[in-house]
């Protein structure tokens, strides 16, 4: 019988600031060398579980626990955050916030410094650890010189340097683009095999996290563990769907084709999937029954970008010769690597920055001379983090802000704010404080505060970043409703599902240039283009190829069918 | 363009000195400048400061803003000194050589202007060294040096980490203010002062909230990696004292000795050319 390295026995944790416990009666054993993925909807308690493992609970977030939690033979309740950090190394979600040192070298060495390790030894071990994550050349670099993926690798090196037996990743993929996310999972796999580590990954993006497989998937809901099994068993059951978690797309596709999933098919990963000829025939039959939708009628052009060049400093051009146009009522995704120029493009559209060359047209009229305020009447901009936008304590005041500043009559303000709140499904909360809302609702408030000015175009920066499937669907369906009411929506995003499911068109940016303007289906059927956009192939592409179907049409058919089923 | 002063990475004899050396040097140098009004000493210190600055390889544009700002402060300071006590120099030097009478109690008196010149030189003697200390010292090394002279490393580190996150907060501020301007917040001078104050609250509120979130992440990340575990800690950027460090400190000590020596010779803090 193996000894568990981590063992929860009837463990309950109750934050001092909460009325009810957040996790209840957890019984869970994790063994040395295992790889565990923990999934669950937002608020299911998976972060609390992680905080109990690394000691943030109760040492940073006070609370009471009952039952026992043993980590590497130590009773967590009698331990300290420092003692636990010798066993459990944590890589947080925020790649910027956890970068403490001025340079890569200092950040990797940070925990050794706190252990009073001698300088010569620190340097030796830092080089060794930087080598494992291929960062030796970057040791002198400051955080702003690194990509998101590189910063995450620094954090990994920084916790592994302690020779911790357990590595805990809190949503490692949330802040990375899909290609960087895949690299991160491959690196985690490599480090685990190399160092015989136990790895625990908390992640929404289950299919991506499963890229290199897992021994077990723990599913949590409402503070309880509701499933603890090998991935295969979970995927063959309907537990994921019941808990509102998105299952891997290829599984959904197989189910739609009416294929009964069995253990012999090796359903854990797309790479391992074994399809019989009759399965493939079923998928082809399903595809043949799908009819392509009529393409929508072309609407008039609402926005045109013509030969835009721009640089924040004269030395470096951040955008080079960008041209495209957007038609009324379109839903467009702007995609590409971090630093490719997507956000800069949005800033130019909103008038936050002025182009060095080229023109911008709104409904055929040159708006280059318009101020930020004048543009805002047509084009609304919603930032990624709602906390960066909300500046009033009450929902009504927040939504009314732009009207109040225009000094409109009180009656008109009230009318327009109420109308907007109704559209956004927030009318019943109109007298609530903003702080009482969930993250998704706050996001709605920020969208409402922009919509109240009646813009024709809405630009959103990563509207669904870090959201679980339910909130993702909620926010996106809401945006689609707005879109159907005639608002043109542009979204900057890394989320492949969002591009595929909700946009008809993708503008792909790389190194300050627009390298493609195409449908998401065509984008995801072009491996070369995906690579340049720092995206990755979906399992649907692979599935279509295995069944000798045209990937582009197959992906389109799947998305349309999926939309009907989910609606 | 750099409105804020922060560490600029370079390789120069000044940068190669340890953080502690630069800190100690700065302290001794300041004392030397503070105790004396001797023109000869102060001018020497200023010229040496300029030489050190040239040695550091830093550029005029790196300090332009700071220098202009401090010049402004010094000018205000001198004008105020003159306005409130136009005959202070006469009292100090014991003679009165009036060059021209201006109006009321204000005249151009050689002694007063010599005194004001010396007063200004006290600033100028320290400014180059102070700027060098700020611009050529890696914040982590600064934290290490504070720790070395007995300040708790937690204090030193919080200073270093504040410096580390200044650019991030600046970026947040910029983005928030752009987004709020799009919602009609006007920061130009057209509005009344009360409106402008209210408007800046619309930017500060989200900035404070998002900064608090950031602080939570940082402090968690630091604790999870053992910050605060021991009474002491080591620093990977800390460098051992080399010959040049001892030389630098020796230079500062000699300067202090010269400054003090001239006090003895002059029989006080002032060098008096009028008798």
Defining key terms:
heterodimer, A: 567 residues, alpha/beta, six-stranded mixed β-sheet, 23 helices, 20 strands, B: 275 residues, mainly alpha, two-stranded antiparallel sheet, 10 helices, flat
Please give a quick description of this structure.
By secondary structure, chain A is an alpha/beta fold.
Helix fraction of chain B by DSSP (H/I, runs of at least 4): 55-70%
Beta-strand content estimate of chain A: 15-25%
Instruction: Give the C-alpha Rg of chain A.
Output: 25 Å
Strand-residue proportion of chain B: under 5%
Question: Share of helix among residues of chain A?
Answer: 25-40%
Distance between the termini of chain B: 48 Å
Report on this model:
The complex is a heterodimer of chains A (567) and B (275). With 567 residues, chain A is an alpha/beta fold. Chain A has a 6-stranded mixed β-sheet, sandwiched between helices. A 6-stranded mixed β-sheet of chain A has the order 16-17-18-13-19-20, with helices on both faces. A 4-stranded antiparallel β-sheet of chain A has the order 2-1-4-5, covered by helices on one side. The longest helix of chain A has 18 residues. Chain A is globular, with a radius of gyration of 25 Å. Chain B folds into 2 domains: 154 residues, no CATH class; 79 residues, no CATH class. In chain B, strand 1 and strand 2 form a beta hairpin. In chain B, helix 4 runs antiparallel to helix 6, helix 7 runs antiparallel to helix 8 and helix 8 crosses helix 9. The termini of chain B are far apart. At the A-B interface, helix 4, helix 5, helix 14 and helix 15 of A face helix 8 and helix 9 of B.
